[in-house]
Amino acid sequence: MLTIPLNFLQSTQTPHSGYHWDGGSRRFFEGWYYRITLPEIGQTFAFMYSIEDPIGGKPHSGGAAQVLGPDDEYLCRTFPDVNKFWGSRDVLGLGHWGKTDLQIAPLYLLPEEFEHHVQEGYQATATLNQGIISDGKANAKGERATNNYCRWEYEIQPVYGWGNKNSIQQSTAGWLSFSQIFEPGWQILMAHGLASGKIDWNGKIYEFTNAPAYGEKNWGGAFPQKWFWINCNCFEGEPDLALTAGGGRRGVLWWMESVAMIGLHYQGKFYEFVPWNSQVDWEIQPWGRWQMKATNSNYEIELTGTTDLAGTPLRAPTEDGLRYCCRDTMQGKLTLELREINGRKSKIILKAESFLCGLEVGGGSWDNVWQSR
Questions:
Q1: Model pTM?
Q2: Cα dihedral 124, 127, 132, 134 sign
Q3: Per-residue pLDDT tens for 275-299?
Q4: In angstroms, rounded to a whole number, what is the distance separating the alpha carbons of residues 150 and 133?
Q5: Are 65 and 77 in contact (CB under 8 A)?
Q6: 3-state secondary structure of 25
Q7: CA 74, CA 225: separation in Å to the nearest integer?
Q8: Euclidean distance between CA atoms 248 and 22, whole angstroms
Q9: CA nearest to 334, candidates 314, 354, 350
Q10: DSSP 8-state symbol, 144
């Protein structure tokens, strides 16, 4: 056994990589999202980890691991014992043990030790994602009715954090994200990376080398009322391109505000469109179509995400605990155009498309189109 490897240099580690809970008793959650895309077969695996009210003894205290697998199939396992969760304050590192023969406080294990000793649970760092869960459904006699499970282990080589390559990495929500003024916080941990390993999905083995990988997190004591999300790092003919965009209504002190941003990494450069440097506009259908446009003094970007698929309902931490409150597909279509502005003229820098884009809407009141203006 050992502590978390510090092989992700501090200069390339994104802000907020560490676990945020301060040990207090106020309502609190933290959630992590890891994803890999397998372009050869047109499929994606997304792993979602969460912990709520880790002080324990509260109505919503506990953790969970969710997997969105091939063809947007879904698996979820809850871990009620908050004392079996661990998180590093200094670097990206977390885990939650369910079934295990170990009688010690939870901590990072070598991958082979984890596989030997932990029959249900997960652990994840900046360079590793590993776990095993089953759905645990049982019939009226208490017998397990289904045998759906997922076992995964892969290593990650980070390519882009959140910012220009070889520079100090940025907070996704700017410097204000270091305070509790804006909640929840949101941080893209790794806009793009390369993953190698394997996933066993109900007996079907998926092996991969240098597959596009992604990671983000959110945390806080308040929950967004409504949000949308667009994410892709697997484009046709553009291996060095990663996009994350999203927006939401969130609490700021005693009022609510609607904010959105677009971040693009391309050929070593970071193009950032955020409320304090750009005009960001959006038009999001309740489901099926996501449109965004952003302009700053040097660049403008337009993107459109679409899907004909129904999407999969997912759970997320809410004021009332882990609930089905968002809908996702990992097989959305995305078109993107980035232009450089020079006076009144604009020049196209990049046009790209993908058929493996992550698209999400979440929260309440999705009866109508949500427009920024």
A1: 0.94
A2: positive
A3: 999 999 999 999 999 999 999 999 9
A4: 6
A5: yes
A6: coil
A7: 24
A8: 25
A9: 354
A10: B
